[in-house]
Write a structure and sequence with these properties.
Helices cover 54% and strands 14% of the residues. It is an alpha+beta fold. A five-stranded mixed sheet has the order 2-1-5-4-3. α9 runs antiparallel to α11. It is rod-shaped and about 155 Å long. The protein starts with a helix and ends in a 7-residue tail after the last strand. Bound molecules: adenosine-5'-triphosphate and magnesium ion. The site of adenosine-5'-triphosphate has 21 residues, from α9 and α11. It is found in: Cell membrane. Its EC number is 2.7.13.3.
Length: 451
């Protein structure tokens, strides 16, 4: 079986994971990039401080500049100074240690700032003379990337989690949809709705779950058919048993009252035998329909078997003329002696039953298509063409047969067809061109035995 479901799940999962990794990486670097700049209002504040420092510097009032710087440092809890380009402090400014290590001015307020710095960077607002600079260690409150850890947590944990949960929901629904339908169908079937089917409900979908639905449908079809057949069989059987039981009941009453005991006792015996045959045939039919067995354990010679059946029937119908045209030998293997004999006997007996006294019944057998074809032609009334298949239905009898032979049950042909089929062959009925019915039975010459 092609692993459609595997590929269906594998594709989106692999692709989803790749896209997720890419999105997380892309968004991570984009956010970090955007967070690496000092916020616009803070940039303006820094520039304003630079402008104030420049204004004070230009007035030449070093004392005022120093006081303003002092106040700024205290207010913002930072370091600030005004220096020349050669890093000479002005207005009593003190240089931080960073300047003692080497010549280095601060950064422009619009520059990108590395987010993982330990000490806040020194920002530089150059005066219009280009020689003097207002320097300030970036106050903590202006430090960019304040929400970096939370953003990272969101991107690396919450986002993948949300996407994976979403993916899981989609996969779950994709799998559970058909399973739910199957569950509902199974429940409905178990509650007696034999017509329930699932495949049609799953639309164009085509994977292992639809294969499962098809298997369910086949199972439901077969089980439903079996249950209906069994129900029908039981109903028909009860109906068929009612008449002989009534007759037995009446005969027993007569015997009890001592009326014509000699006549009624054999009649009771005959009714009992008919009932036993009927029940046995019905049980065999039910078994063949339920189990659909392959009857393939015997090897037999059809000529011998037909000879012995014809001899019995000739004895039973002495007023009919049975003619046979059989090959000297017709061995078949992988068959069932019992089933074939019973089927052939039923068909030949029917031919005799429905052929008027003195009529001819012709039985022919010849090799045909890797098997043997048996034809039984009679001179009876035949069967209306629309009933040629119906006569193989259990308990089906034509109206004429009901009148001519009230003791028949309509089980002979259905049983014969299932027996021949279980032996690997087939049975067909057709009306002869002249008068009467032709039954054709085909048996395979050899069939491998099943272990
Ligand atoms: N050779 C035939 N000629 C005409 N009608 C036939 C012939 N064989 C069968 N039928 C019709 O098919 C029906 C079914 O036959 P089937 O053998 O199953 O039942 P049956 O002969 O009526 O009863 P039984 O159960 O005793 O065999 C018959 O009732 C009859 O109407
Ligand atoms: Mg019959």
């Amino acid at each position: 079986m092609t692993r459609r479901l595997f590929w269906k799940l594998c594709g989106p999962l692999t692709l989803g994971t790749l896209v997720l990794v890419w999105v997380v990486t892309f968004l991570g670097s984009e956010t970090e990039q955007k967070m690496s700049f000092i916020a616009e209002p803070h940039q303006q504040t820094l520039n304003q401080w630079g402008a104030t420092a420049e204004r004070l510097y230009r007035t030449g009032d070093e004392q005022a500049l120093a006081e303003w710087l002092e106040a700024l440092q205290i207010r913002e809890n930072t370091w600030a100074a005004v220096v020349r380009s050669d890093v000479q402090p002005l207005a009593g400014s003190r240089l931080s240690e960073q300047f003692q290590e080497g010549f280095r001015l601060g950064r422009h307020v619009e520059w990108k700032i590395h987010l993982y710095f330990t000490e806040n960077p020194i920002m530089d607002v150059t005066f219009t003379d280009g020689q003097t600079h207002f320097l300030v260690t970036l106050p903590q409150r202006m430090r960019p990337g304040t929400y970096l850890p939370e953003t990272k947590l969101l991107l690396k944990v919450a986002l993948p989690l949300a996407v994976l949960v979403l993916l899981a929901v989609v996969i779950y629904r994709h799998l559970m949809g058909p399973l739910r339908q199957l569950e509902l169908a199974t429940r409905s079937f178990s509650e007696g709705n034999l017509g329930v089917r699932v495949r049609a409900l799953l639309g164009k979908r085509n994977d292992e779950l639809t294969a499962l639905a098809e298997t369910f449908d086949r199972m439901a079809e077969r089980t439903g058919d079996l249950i209906l057949t069994q129900r029908r069989l039981i109903a028909d059987l009860s109906h068929e048993l009612r008449t002989p039981l009534t007759r037995i009941d009446m005969a027993v009453s007569c015997v009890e009252e001592g009326i014509d005991t000699q006549h009624f006792l054999p009649r009771i015996r005959r009714e009992c035998r008919l009932m036993r045959d009927l029940v046995e045939d019905a049980l065999t039919l039910a078994w063949l329909e339920n189990e659909q067995p392959s009857l393939d354990q015997d090897s037999l010679d059809l000529t011998d078997l037909l000879d012995s059946v014809i001899e019995d029937v000739r004895y039973e119908y002495p007023d009919h003329c049975l003619e046979s045209d059989l090959p000297p030998q017709s061995a078949i293997s992988g068959s069932s002696h019992r089933a074939v004999a019973q089927a052939v006997e039923n068909v030949i007996r029917n031919a005799c039953h429905y052929t008027p006294v003195g009529g001819h019944i012709r039985i022919g057998l010849w090799p045909d298509d890797e098997g043997y074809r048996l034809t039984v032609d009679d001179e009876g009334p035949g069967v209306a063409s629309d009933q040629l298949e119906l006569i193989f239905t259990p308990f089906y009898r034509t109206d004429q047969a009901r009148d001519d032979r009230p003791d028949g049950h309509g089980l002979g042909l259905p049983l014969a067809r299932r027996q021949v089929e279980a032996a690997g062959g087939w049975v067909r009925a057709e009306n002869r061109a002249t008068r009467g019915l032709r039954m054709t039975l085909w048996f395979p010459a050899s069939r491998p035995k099943r272990p």
